[in-house]
Write a structure and sequence with these properties.
Layout: E1 5-10, E2 15-22, E3 26-34, H1 36-40, H2 47-68, E4 78-84, H3 88-105, E5 109-113, H4 114-125, E6 133-138, E7 143-150, E8 153-159, H5 165-175, H6 182-190, H7 214-229, H8 236-262, E9 266-270, H9 277-290, E10 293-295, H10 299-302, H11 306-318
Parallel strand pairs: 1-4, 4-5, 6-9, 9-10
Antiparallel strand pairs: 1-2, 2-3, 6-7, 7-8
Length: about 325
């Protein structure tokens, strides 16, 4: 089969990103215009402002991605774009740009589920990785265990019933004054802390691989408030370490159960929280004991990027997926 070049466009939240990927695995360019520093002053992403900033960045980002890859639009075989889930205004900017390019050039349009994009980030880092495998997809908006039977054949085995793991971390980061983005700041704050200094509850759901983090988050909030009422303050390093270690162990427990149920020993991590050092450490420690083979995306590819969308789009494209110009943003798109 001849080389296939995919232009991937991602704008689901606060990153305007575009990449060119060859054959789903070879990264030719990776351009990201981040808004994180801007939104930090508000303590989180402001959807309307994010949308406006995407409008300013989208075409310069696409132009640079093509230039960095040393290709032109006529060399592109398909345009892959995130159409959900995400912030509706932000999604519409990337989607409108992709549809405009497709309409003007005649290049096929392939809509990509953002979460499947995160899973595909692993293909860019590990050329040898092939399905079947299990993927723990964990971010600020989603937490799920996915059985990847083939490149476009996936099944959710378990998901959170309330808060996503990343949301639980971000919330506590704000409460203890770390601000936005909470995940990286909590990770940094916990370095050197005692993971056993604070004890948090673990939600165990019988006969299911689902997660629940609302009780854990509430327990953490209660600890903080009780200390404040007494005129004390928590030890931030110990608290952050214990809290993240507890979340990591919960994620590990259900992933191991999924491996035992399916007999699949290849485990991938994906999504923003897959960059968390506490999560990686507990998985590393357990993998050797249980004969699991682990795959983690490079840190840059854990967060939102166009490369993962291009990779996922490639596998959809060769599987025959095509979308028309009536493709619309779906902010609550299911997996």
């Amino acid at each position: 089969m001849e080389d296939v070049l995919i232009l991937g466009i991602e704008s689901s939240c606060d990153e305007t990103a575009c990449s060119v990927v060859r054959n789903g695995r070879e990264l030719l360019s990776d351009v990201i215009a981040s808004q994180a520093d801007f939104h930090e002053q508000y303590g989180g992403v402001v959807p309307e402002l994010a949308s406006r900033m995407h409008v300013d960045s989208i075409y310069p980002t696409i132009k640079k991605a093509l230039s960095d890859a040393n290709v032109s639009l006529k060399d592109i075989d398909a345009i892959a774009v995130t159409y959900g889930p995400g912030l509706v205004g932000a999604l519409l900017v990337g989607l409108s740009a992709a549809k405009g390019l497709s309409a003007a050039s005649g290049i096929p349009l392939v809509g990509v589920n953002h979460l499947k994009g995160h899973i595909a980030a692993n293909y860019l880092c590990f050329p040898e990785l092939e399905p079947p495998f299990l993927c723990l997809c964990v971010s600020g908006g989603n937490t799920m265990i996915v059985k990847v039977s083939d490149y476009t054949d996936m099944e959710v085995l378990g998901r959170t019933r309330d808060d996503a793991a990343g949301e639980a971390i971000d919330k506590i980061a704000r409460v203890v004054g770390l601000g936005y983005p909470g995940g990286p700041k909590m990770d940094k704050a916990g370095q050197g802390g005692d993971i056993n200094a604070y004890t948090f509850p673990h939600a165990h759901m019988k006969d299911t691989l689902d997660f629940s983090f609302s009780g854990l988050k509430t327990a953490a909030l209660n600890m903080i408030n009780i200390d404040r009422q007494k005129g004390n303050s928590i030890d931030l390093a110990d608290f952050a370490a214990s809290y993240q270690h507890s979340i990591a162990n919960t994620l590990l427990t259900n992933t191991i159960k999924a491996s035992q149920m399916t007999g699949i020993t290849k485990i991938c991590l994906a999504g923003g929280v897959s960059a968390n050092s506490f999560l990686r450490k507990v998985f590393d420690e357990e993998a050797g004991k249980r004969g699991l083979t682990l795959y983690y995306p490079d840190l840059r590819l854990c967060t939102d990027n166009g490369a993962m969308i291009a990779s996922a789009g490639y596998f959809e494209y060769i599987n025959g997926t095509r979308h028309g110009l009536d493709l619309n943003a779906k902010p609550s798109l299911e997996f």
